[in-house]
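DM between two lab members

TW: hey, do you still have the Cytochrome c oxidase subunit 2 entry open?
JB: yeah, one sec
JB: this one, 229 aa:
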Amino acid sequence: MATWTALNFQDAASPLMEQLIFFHDHAMLVLILITTLVGFMLSSLFFNSLTNRFLLEHQTIETAWTILPAIILIFIALPSLRLLYLLDEVNSPSVTLKVIGHQWYWSYEYSDFAQVEFDSYMVPESNMTKASFRLLDVDNRTVLPMNTQVRVLITAADVIHSWTVPALGVKVDAIPGRLNQLSFQMNRPGLFYGQCSEICGANHSFMPIVVESTSVKSFLNWISSHSEE
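TW: and the structure you got?
JB:
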């Protein structure tokens, strides 16, 4: 999860987030090179009183500073398009989770299992322990198996919400009357925190998300215990 001193992304917990971080680093490298080149040219203009009279009205430099940015944009656009299609790719899922946004809590339904559904509310400050995270912990976590392809179907019952978990690299709007879909796979166990990322009313800040990544065996035991209830 994010901390006060963190200036970069959270540690990736899915292959999608790893690819997003790689693309961010690639784009930042290109930006640093451009900034360095432009800064050098500006500083040389400030401190150099000499000039090249053949470059004042010349087609060569005009051609160069038109073609070079186009080539740089291609180096950014191609990985961006690849990643865009990768994020929309839905492989054959092993688990389907339905998420419904309400004012101001989340409802979860495990469509593959009978009668496994629950609401997830933020833990109020009066019920928190010393190990709890303020505004982030919930009473019912969303338990999912790691190293398993998960499909999430997202909608809302009242206004637009947004189901967002930064460590997984997922952010999808929950829109009333519409069913949005995302797919991801978690590659390590842990707790991954998120929040609603669409302003949805007075208590928008108080509908967190906690995804618990466990082994397949632990997930099936958890499902069994909830099915019996």
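TW: got it. The chain has a mean pLDDT of 89. The first helix runs from residue 15 to 47.
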